[in-house]
Amino acid sequence: MNGRLPVIARYGDRLPLAPGAPVVSLGEGSTPLIPAPRISERLGIELFLKLESANPTGSFKDRGMTVAVSQAVADGACAVICASTGNTAASAAAYAARAGLVAVILQPAGAVALGKLMQARAVGGRLLEVRGSFDQALAAARELGRRGTYALVNSLNPDRIEGQKTAAFEIAEELGAPPEILSLPYGGGGNTVAYVKGFEEWGAGMPKIVSGQAAQRASTVASAIRIAEPVHQNEVETAVVRHGVEVVTVGDEAILAAWRELAESEGVFCEPSSAASVAALEASKPPRGARVVCVITGHGLKDPATVERSTPPPLVVDPDPDAIAEAVG
């Protein structure tokens, strides 16, 4: 049963919360690690997918948000704030609602996928569209956090990284050791930093980490990693030097091809940014037989517009068996 516990209950001894601190949880963590047999066969590797899309709000952000919002409550905060391209907004708004706090969400105008906007709105987040980029929205959120008006819950908050590192613990536990390679998307870089920290603390060896960024960071179809200036870039560069992290740049065509393959070959419907992990892995040319984990960071329902643009529409048929059989071909 221990493997089904939420993040703080499962790994509280490895997290910075004080004993007795209030815990704000939606049952996050303990997400599935599943084999991907068809992609494994094509690439000649043993590939597993870490389905962080199975977290309560549909993305990996929930791991860090449970810790950050719990600490905000312990510190007496009345509100949280974040800048977001979508997943952080959905998670912050949900965990704030769970805690009885106000969540203020700053989003770059026109840059957030519809599914994520609906999540944040549905749970009462106060959404403000900023006339500018994500980086400008984040600068404003950081300043309000410094003033003490709000608790900042972007990944610049170290409690977020602390929570996210627990995914590395789960992978190592389930496989019995860290994988040889771990591949994940690279937007702001916080998740890369978190996995490095998690495997460092686990102490059984560091996998080769492949961090996949979009070639056109500011305009990529993968909206969750549409971040021109990664706030954790310096930390990622340090990890490149210390641990051999490989930053791999992939184009939107490769990301969408991996997105389709995950859905059509493995039955895993993810948002396009998640598929950057598979696209980057393939571009890095993993050695044959390697044991690999790709992190699926967010659910496909967060970005229905990509499905609308990239897949054929339904066919309209008469309710006649012969007509249906003919249409199916």
Tell me the Rg in angstroms: 20 Å
Biggest beta sheet attributes: 6 strands, mixed
In helices, the fraction of residues equals 40-55%
**How many structural domains in the coordinates?**
2
- The CATH architecture term of the largest domain is 3-Layer(aba) Sandwich
* Strand ordering within the main sheet: 1-2-10-7-8-9
What class, by secondary structure content?
alpha/beta
| Poorly predicted tracts of residues | none
CATH class label of the largest domain: Alpha Beta
Instruction: Tell me the number of strands.
Output: 10
The CATH topology of the largest domain is given as Rossmann fold
Number of helices: 14
Share of β-strand residues = 15-25%
H/E order of the elements?
HEHEHEHEHEHEHHEHEHEHHEHH
> What gross morphology would you assign?
globular
Q: Can you give the mean pLDDT?
A: 95
Note the gap between the termini. Answer: 47 Å
Structure, described:
The protein has about 325 residues and is of the alpha/beta class. It has two domains: about 1-60 and about 160-310, Rossmann fold (3-Layer(aba) Sandwich); about 60-155, Rossmann fold (3-Layer(aba) Sandwich), CATH 3.40.50.1100. The chain is built from 14 helices and ten strands. Strand 4 (about 100-110), helix 5 and strand 5 (about 125-130) form a beta-alpha-beta unit. The protein is globular, with a radius of gyration of 20 Å. The mean pLDDT is about 95.
